[in-house]
Amino acid sequence: MNNIINYFVEANICLVILGTFYFLCLQKDNHHRFIRFFLIGSGFLSVTLPLINLGSFMTEQSTNGSGVIKSIQSTFILPELTIFGSAGKRSLLYILNSYNWLHILATLYLLVSVVLITIFFFQICQILWLSKTKKAFKQDHFTFILTDGQLPTFSFFKLLFYDNSIKLSDDEKQKVIDHELVHIRQKHSWDIVFYELIKTMFWVNPIVWVFKLRLKYTHEYLADEHIIQKTSKEYYSHLLAKITLNQMSLGLAHHFNKSFTLNRIKMMNTPVSKFKTWKWITLIPIVTILFISISCNDDSASEATEAMSTAHQREVPKELQSELARLQQEYPEANFTYMETDADNEESMIKFKNLDPESIGYIKKYEDRGMIGVIVNQNGQLKKIAKATNLPDDEVFSIVEEPAMPEGGYENLYEKISQIIKYPLQARKKGIAGKVFVQFIINENGLLSDTKVVKGIGAGCDHEAMRALNAASLEITWKPALERGVKVKQKLILPITFALDDNDNNQSSINIDEVSNSGESQIKLDIKHDGLTVYGTVMNKEGKPLAGTNIIIEGTNQGSVSSIDGSFKIKLNTPKDKLIFSFMGFQTTSYSLEKC
């Protein structure tokens, strides 16, 4: 999906830049042939230039020099889950965040595109159907079709529809036919179809609509320009006014009768402005800059490939293994390879010097062997590779091509959490409400780990949110994230909102049986330790395991959760660390090695 987004953004940037040039320099220009060339060229460049960069996007995910597959950690925020304080209001509220909006907007965008492409094909079918149902005559280079007043005069490719119900002289009829023949000979219909297809892809960009409309106007101006070469402007203007009628809309066709008849008459009587060469010369650096800026990544990659053609790829020497590991950690998306080339080989050295310095991670010269070893990134410049794990918390996190997904979808995960989570009594008594952001990682095996609160509200809500997520994940299998077909780690953030209404601030309205921490039930522990590693089982007073018990090292965000059989294992940082065991409906219990 990232490839599609990149293409979409780059294509629209091209359209905007070329559109800006049009509005500044060409909007009032009446050199219609050059305007047509510019409009078609702008559409073609906008669609094709971004494709040049797709080669680097398609680079196959491969193992690096040490045989370790790259692990990419991306982070995005999940839909929000809201927990209400009152038992009667225990429902889920899904608040769509940037991730959901992205997919919803993409779906809506595609729906509009489907509608536009459907209309496009419907219009084509409509014209073809009309050509079969009306009286037609085959000519040398086109088909002449009489509409008997049911349709206006227009042309589409080699089909010329003529409204024979209008009373015109033979000379006037010929002028109308000659006008449409200009459209057919100059293949104007291809231009319209081309821009209709562009419109279905980039309909959100107003430049596309402006260019398409101006192109149709330009076609009419070109046809008029051809006619008035052999006919007086006054005579032809009178003819245009005479046959201007109400007509059905056939968006793909070239109508002789257009709503801008007055503009056409005005354009015919406007002297052709002096051709200003500087306008078109200005296009050269604009197109060049667009080409270079979009394709520069591929240039770097091709330079590396060319250099490798004269070098020898080898396994990374032992003395460079640590350097390669450092580079892989610093640039997780880079595709590093190690090469050696003869320092005395002039051809090899020339190609090595042409390498982009920003793509080289490390160089070592072996004086004893007369060789030069290079660790180079085949994907291009290292400085352009963003390390997702280094993104600050307040930035928008990257999204992998296929994000991690719980079994049954997020609705199933949220349903599990809603069944487990309890609104802490302490928070309800104090009237504390707000949003807790729980961060966690789904690794390549689909296992949840590294759960921690990155922003919380306290009063037991932070620990309860972590406990509920960990407990729910024990009952759900996760499908790991995919990036370029490879299973990768993904960092996610789950916002859980604890919400109170006015009645929740009144202690008498609290369902004590539901959220009580008063201590009638106690957690029973069967604990052993091996050095700083503590392990054992968490149970209730009847000896039944308590799955999902939250276990935290006091004063830290480090912790764990008991499994389905109540077992757990956690390593302390120091012998003085204290473990806090909490489970809703049970009295919080602590444990430390010093008590043993």
TrEMBL record:
Pfam family, one: CarbopepD_reg_2
Membrane topology label: Single-pass membrane protein
Chief place where the protein resides: membrane
MF annotations from Gene Ontology: energy transducer activity
TonB C-terminal domain sequence ranges: 408-507
Family matches, as SUPFAM superfamilies: Carboxypeptidase regulatory domain-like, TolA/TonB C-terminal domain
Single GO cellular component term: plasma membrane protein complex
Keyword field: Cell inner membrane, Cell membrane, Membrane, Protein transport, Transmembrane, Transmembrane helix, Transport
GO biological process: protein transport; transmembrane transport
InterPro entries cross-referenced by the UniProt entry: CarboxyPept-like_regulatory, Peptidase_M56, TonB-dependent_transducer, TonB/TolA_C, TonB_C
Keyword Transmembrane helix: yes
Protein localization: Cell inner membrane
UniProt keyword annotation of Manganese present: no
Transmembrane feature ranges: 6-25, 37-58, 101-129
NCBIfam families to which the protein is assigned, alphabetical: tonB_Cterm
Family per similarity comment: Belongs to the TonB family.
The protein's name: TonB family protein
Organism per entry: Fulvivirga sediminis
